[in-house]
Amino acid sequence: MRPRIEPAAMDVLMVRLFDTIDEENMPWLLAADRALREAFGSWLIDLVPSYTTLMLHYDCLCLTHAEALQRIERALEGLEPAGAGLGQRHEIPVWYDPSVGPELVRVAERAGLTIDEIVRRHCDRDYRVFALGFAPGYGFMGLVEEALATPRLNTPRRRVPAGSVAIAERQTAIYPLQSPGGWNILGRTAVPLFEHARRGEPLLLPGDRVRFAAISRDEFERQGGDTTPLESAS
User: Which DSSP string do the residues of 9-59 spell out, in sequence order?
Assistant: First the structure.
């Protein structure tokens, strides 16, 4: 692995560790995140890990561009991947049903599988949280089984309800609050991701693992879930 450092703004550097998305990247990205935070200390304004990169925003009033580059290079010299125990594991209960997951039919037809089999397969593995973005508490997760991979909708919805669980290509995610979106909706959870993020305590963080668990409508309602149907995308 040979990190590449690319300028993104006057005081922002993009540290690229990989060129392709892979679950095996995460231990390296987490180790780099920790090393860079230690190297920059109070001169670090923000550090955002993603699938293959880390975006580093530093205080340019305290460090020159050359000094920032030197700190990055020294921090990543001899980098070793983080231990497998880093990151939490979360089980997210989901009500999978065409009334709140209208693309269940689309995904099933594309894969040549039944809806029940789509649900089983979506729940049958842990997903790594690669990055946060789009909305507070929104975690980009993967990788979804190849058979379930489905392209985004041609026309995004104007409103996707909070708690909607969706897939796009080989990624999966949960919408933390009502927002526009073009992913394929499979179901809905009552876990309040946005409330966690609003308190400054995001439930999902890069490096965490998520396992979805199918629940009944009755259980979903007991957990406070909203059963308002969502129309199929046009």
Answer: ETTEEEEE--SS--GGGHHHHHHHHHHHHHHHGGGEEEEEE-SSEEEEEE-
